[in-house]
Amino acid sequence: MQNKSxxxxxxxxxxxxxxxxxxFSVGDLCVTTFFQDVLQSPLFFDxxxxxxxxxxxGPVASFIEYLLFITLVCIKLQVLYGKTDYTFLYVxxxxxxxLVAWAFIYKKENLTKGVNITFLYLxxxxxxxxxxxxxxxxxxxYFVANLFQKDWNFNKIIFAFNGEYLDFLTSAIIGRxxxxxxxxxxxxxxxxxxxxxxxxxxxx
Length: 204
Hints:
This protein has eight helices and no strands. With 204 residues, it is mainly α.
């Protein structure tokens, strides 16, 4: 009887994780479409729900959520523009964010030691993840020239750094750092808040 109850619990938990991952990937698609396409913002906030999944279920579920999200993005781009370019390569950036952030937050007890400690852990994770993501994303943009179109809202910032004293790779990385760190800070705290709220909803 105990084994049967445990199996039922594990099956229910697995179903909850699967449904949450699907729901969160659609959520990230909606958020990024609004900020990127509607507002033309250099801040995409495309990992808010990915980070929420990281807090709720860990790095594997978080990475699967982003894989599903980026697949939906590629489908959208294919339908609207007939091409996806190399958008899927940004999975590498997402993986970097997940691994760096998880290194700081995997000990969940550190996030329950008061507001100040929680803020410190989240902010530190955000900054380091932002720096790592800026480096990885800058390298992706450097090696895949098709991603660099000057009229794209985010690239206007990057090209402002590309001049006589900075080479293209350095510009691609440095130009990303301020925006990427700001994006990381906002999405990390938002993801943390969503995870806390969602956990309460699950507990009913």
